[in-house]
Amino acid sequence: MCLRVWPAFILAGCLLAGCANEKSSAVKAGESPAVKKIVVWHWMNDRHCAFDELAAKYKAQTGIDVEFKLFSPPDIYSQKVIAAARAGNLPDVFGILGEKKTLASFIKAGHVLDLTAYMIADHKVWQDSFFTQALEVNVFRAGNSYQAPAGVFGVPIDTTLMQFVYNKALFKKAGLDPEQPPATIEEFINMALAVKKKTGSDGFICGWGENWLLNSLAMEWAINTMGEEKFYQTIAGKVPYTDPDWISVFSQFSKLKDSGILSPNITTMINKESESAFSADRSAFSYNGSWSVNVYKQLSQNLDYAFFGLPKVSNKFPAKIWGGAGSSFMVYAKSPNKDEAVSFLKWLTQEDQQKVLAKATNNLPSVKGCESEVAPVLKPLLADFDNLTHPNNWPAYEDYRVTEVLNKGLQRIVMGLMTPDQLAKEVQEVKQRANNSN
């Protein structure tokens, strides 16, 4: 959700331009060669060993080899997938990084197999095994804004979500109850101030030099402030960003700045720096993803922390949590092994295999029934799976030009260089120009 990848419009151009030269990998009529190997491309360093172990297990059960090929970092992986799509030699199974419109461009270019029939077979047993919000990332509804055909085009293998984290050790030093994190923005600020006063540590630290972290938090507060319907109407251009509810959302960042709880260099800090500082007991609070469990474990074996939900800014609407499928696999539509590839993905997302992945990698599963193997610090997050939100699941994406101005404006508010009213006006002007150009 936070990976930097090729823009979707560039991907679409590359993919569609390569269609005319695509080599057919279909089996010739009358041939039925035995499947000897299923090739899977991925970028996930943290689970490559676990994948290899599962591949050996699958070989023992079925006699079919599965080769997981790792390519990283993500930018290199994405470039390799683009090149393979243009050349017509994608592997049997691969992942697509980026926004939902990126996946749509691959689908429209004919590279991704529609999995709907497999999902709904046998009374939807495979489809219903997934957490809804994890699977939804790979689902396109009829009449979608991406103009992709309706169907299910990917298999989620884990779930990720954003949450706040707090340092329980610092809570104790400040005389706060370590089992009672804040529920509202006011409690959040007061507790952060208490920790800062008693311990000298920062109240809140985050990698706001990476503006996606600012954006996800702002969108959560927006939905909590105005509700999902009005939020979606804004993206559709029916509600302006100058609406009082949006100014209220932007004002939360002014409130944080004025409170004095923010780390001094928060707007230039990258997430890795923030994680390092939080692990060293230098802040009461941070905002990070469920994957940070592995990061914190590597940085400090003694870190005493826990996750908690969004500090609410309103009681009018429920809070939504930024999250969904963390990683998904697609089947190459022209693979001669596509049925066997689907069978392997069905096996990979069964409870036994998902438990192996959850235990080995400290990632949240994409299917139900694996709670026993989820790391203790992550188990409370399972209760939030029915309450996730993410742009990949929204009716439409906001224009990237609007998002860019909004994110930079939030940084400027935190730096004291812009007011919420000024940001609202500037974002709405860009929104109007984007609507006119579209």
Can you describe this structure?
The chain folds into 2 domains: 8-12 and 35-158 and 326-366, D-Maltodextrin-Binding Protein, domain 2; 161-323 and 396-437, 3-Layer(aba) Sandwich (D-Maltodextrin-Binding Protein, domain 2), CATH 3.40.190. It is 45% helix and 13% strand. It has 16 helices and 13 strands. Strands 7, 8, 9, 10, 11 and 13 form a 6-stranded mixed beta sheet that branches. Strands 3-12-6 form a 3-stranded antiparallel beta sheet, covered by helices on one side. The protein is globular. Residues 1-33 have low confidence and may be disordered.
Please give a handful of descriptors for the protein shown:
438 residues; alpha/beta; D-Maltodextrin-Binding Protein, domain 2; 2 domains; six-stranded mixed β-sheet; three-stranded antiparallel β-sheet; 16 helices; 13 strands; globular; disordered N terminus
Strand content: 5-15%
Number of strands: 13
Largest sheet: 6 strands, mixed
Return the structural class.
alpha/beta
Helix and strand element order:
HEHEHEHHHEEEEHHEHHHEHEEEHHEHH
Shape: globular
Name of the CATH architecture of the largest domain: 3-Layer(aba) Sandwich
* Gyration radius over CA: 23 Å
Number of domains: 2
What is the overall pLDDT average? 91
In DSSP terms (H or I, runs of 4 or more residues), the helix count works out at 16
- Percent in helix: 40-55%
Poorly predicted regions are 1-33
CATH homologous superfamily annotation of the largest domain: Periplasmic binding protein-like II
Specify the CATH class of the largest domain: Alpha Beta
